[in-house]
Amino acid sequence: MTRKRVAVTGVGTVSPLGVGTESTWKSLVSGESGAGPVTRFDATGYSTRIACEVKDFDPTEFMDQRDARRSDRFTQFAVASATEAAESAGWTTANIPYARDRVGVVIGSGIGGIETLETQHRVLLERGPSKMSPFTVPLLMINGAAGSVAMKYGLNGPNYAAVSACATGAHAIGEAAQMIRNGLAEAMLAGGSEAPITPLAYGAFACMGALSRRNDDPTHASRPFDADRDGFVIAEGAAVVVLEEWEAATERGAEILAELVGYSATSDAFHLTQPDPEGAGAAGAMTKAIADAGIDRKDVGYINAHGTSTPFNDKIESKAIRDVFGADAPPVSSTKSATGHLTGAAGAIEAVFSIQAMVTKTLPPTINYETADPECDLDYIPNAARTAEVEYVLSNSFGFGGHNACLLFKRAT
Questions:
Q1: In angstroms, what is the C-alpha Rg of the chain?
Q2: Which of 52, 121, 207, 306 is catalytic?
């Protein structure tokens, strides 16, 4: 059976740089940072007190007030992103261009409704079990985002949530594409969403020593590949893409933004939080995505790196890229320098950035790159966006637990 091609026809974004893909992308290529002091709770006493928060977000612009009250913040982000993605693909709730049982949703999250969990646990301890919300379970469950999007558009095809820590968003998009490739669906909404800026989640990451402590200079705290990096800046947000079977999208006259031509998933099987120091799992994921696309590695014109701004990740990813591409490695940048680390949504928003790089012929920069690290010896597109027309873009996502996922996109022609 001939494998079906997968077109990207819509993108949607909620990020610390803006609500919507256009405003997010404009801020990203302008070199802006989404970081600042934590405002979602009182972070006094925490070792880290900075984050990349979503500003000026009103969920009632994307769902009615009743549904907004019954949705955790991560689900609200997912619905907002899916709404933009669907609209940009020319879909409406009343007009889906396929039979609804042939359209599905895969939207993942690393930790799901953690805000609901913390809030309701506090209610339990302070007021007793009878005062807890009857919506606690649907609010906190990770698959709630995918379910909410499917209900908004009446989609009866495959529907589930991917969960693989920081690789979640990429896995969700890759697995959704596989369903189209194999004829299990004609179209999919796929991506990731996360809202982890809560006392428990934030504190847990902080006590691991994973977060930057540049509390006095938040906009310069996320500095991937820089010698003075000291951890990532936690972020919230979401991104969703619309994937369609290529011929069907062409027949309906859809504007095709890109083609998803390669996908791979590997495991380090090494440590629950640290990457394999040899970078074998990451290198294997990149190599397999390139092989899946049926191209030569020299055809890749840009890599959107996982690039977390942690000492281990950045040098190991750099090594893995060098091992795969050799001395001719393409330009690399980490957009986490501007957005912070959206954890379960990172792979999805970085897929959108990879697509935007081809559409706009602009490679986004790694901001805050000031001091070279001899163990990170690639072209990181430092501090300023670069004009370039590339045909293939690779997006890397590597998660706690040793989960690796790579997506390879081709410019629409």
A1: 20
A2: 306
Q: Are strands 159-160 and 103-108 parallel, antiparallel or unpaired?
A: parallel
What pLDDT does 188 receive?
98
- pLDDT of amino acid 271: 87
- Nearest to 73, CA basis, from 266, 273, 345: 345
- CA dist 203 and 21 (Å) reads 30
DSSP H or E run through 11: strand 6-15
Of 52, 166, 376, 406, the active-site residue reads 166
Nearest Cα residue to 233 out of 368, 49, 397? 49
DSSP 276: P
Contacts of 228 (CB under 8 A, 6+ apart): 370, 371
Between CA 198 and CA 39, with CA 400 as vertex, the angle to 5 degrees is: 20
Nearest to 201 by CA among 113, 311, 120, 75: 113
Tokens at 184, concatenated: 């299990």
341 is catalytic: yes
State the residue for tokens 């190599």.
287
- Both tokens of 293, joined, read 């696309």
Say if residue 392's pLDDT is above 70.
Answer: yes
Rounded to whole angstroms, the Cα distance separating 7 from 154 reads 22
Length of the chain: 413
Query: Do residues 317 and 282 touch, judged by C-beta distance below 8 A?
Result: yes
Whole-number pLDDT of residue 1: 60
- pLDDT above 70: percentage of residues in the chain: 100
- Residue 294: its pLDDT value, please? 97
